[in-house]
Amino acid sequence: MQKTKKGISIREDKNMRYKEGLVSCVTPVHNGEKYLRSMLDSVLNQTYPFVELFLVDDGSTDGTLEIARSYQERFAKKNYRYQVIETVHKHASAAINQGLAQVTGEFLIWPDSDDILEPDSVERRVEFLKSHPEYRCVRSLMYYFDQNEEKRKTGEPLGDLKEERLFFEILEFRTFVCCGCYMLRTKEFFEIYPKHRIPEYPVGQNFQMLLPFMYRHRCPTIPEKLYGVRVHPDSHSRMPRTQEEEEQRYRDFEDLVEEIRKISRIRNIRERIRIECWKQKRRREIAYRYGKKWEEKKASFVLFLCGKSSKQQALLHWIKKRTGREECKPKSE
After folding, report:
1. 206 and 91 in contact (C-beta within 8 Å)?
2. Residue 204 lies in a domain
3. What is the tens place of the pLDDT at every residue in 148-197?
């Protein structure tokens, strides 16, 4: 273990080299000139002294690159490593891979370019992981605000904040995916992705970053709002889509989750059925939205077989109540 300036140590590993105590931040951005300054300012305002930021420009055509470059001196003065990486436009998961290849820190975060970190966001999470070495990751809560900086109540479900097994909680949308809330230990992350690359899909990067990690490791929650999510009409997740685009997006998510299942080595039959049920629920939802009755019926039938149909759930509950037999519990329990 070799000491460097600021007291950070460099620890050698067979597959990678990382700096103990350093937090690596990777943020992809595409045409983000409206809100990028707020995000960069929030990184510079961190109370934690050891941060490196890799800002990956995903082929922006506005003033994003000029804004990004203008922060070089300010980051140098803060003694934060700051690198602006230019790529041709593809999508966020491809862009974030460019940053992951540069990561050297013990901890990893990936906030969105239009959101903000509270000043003690990084420090609070590092402190938690330092004082709880049994955990490989941690998350905080978040708040939502609009382009006028006014806080809003709408957002993702929080779920059971005492729950630490989050793979299915995230997959089934019972808790929040909000990327900037999570902090992972880099070593364990790259044990999952030894080539320092996540699967590239045009449906974002958070499932790839989170789900395989959450399948392996417990993730506790710090009950503090340390991250701000900006709600605005320009957000990629809120863009209007045609029926064809929406259906393709659903198919892409299914393909992604199937690849994540393989990466996570999920072989348990009950868990695989649960993933299949997730797919069928989404198929039924999109079929209903666009009036595809036959597709909706097919998905409903498969869900019935999986034990996820609301009618079968009610039937199983009625049988259990009448007989008291434990074997009548639904498969999901």
Report:
1. no
2. yes
3. 666 666 678 999 999 999 999 999 999 999 999 999 999 999 999 999 99
Measured distance CA(219)–CA(99) in Å, rounded? 24
Whether residues 28 and 134 share a domain: the answer is: yes
Q: What pLDDT is stored for residue 302 in this prediction? A: 86
Domain range enclosing 297: 267-324
In angstroms, the CA 13 to CA 187 distance is 9
Burial of residue 76, with CB atoms counted within 10 A of its CB: 0-12 exposed, 13-18 middle, 19 or more buried:
exposed
Within 13 Å and on the Cβ side, how many CA atoms surround 253?
21
Residues 213 and 310 in one domain: no
Structure confidence by residue, pLDDT tens digits, 192-227: 999 999 999 999 899 999 999 999 999 999 999 999
Task: Report, as an integer, the average pLDDT of 319-324.
Answer: 62
The total number of structural domains in the chain stands at: 2
SS3 assignment, position 257 = helix
Distance separating alpha carbons of residues 304 and 283, to the nearest angstrom = 14
Residue 298: inside a domain, yes or no? yes
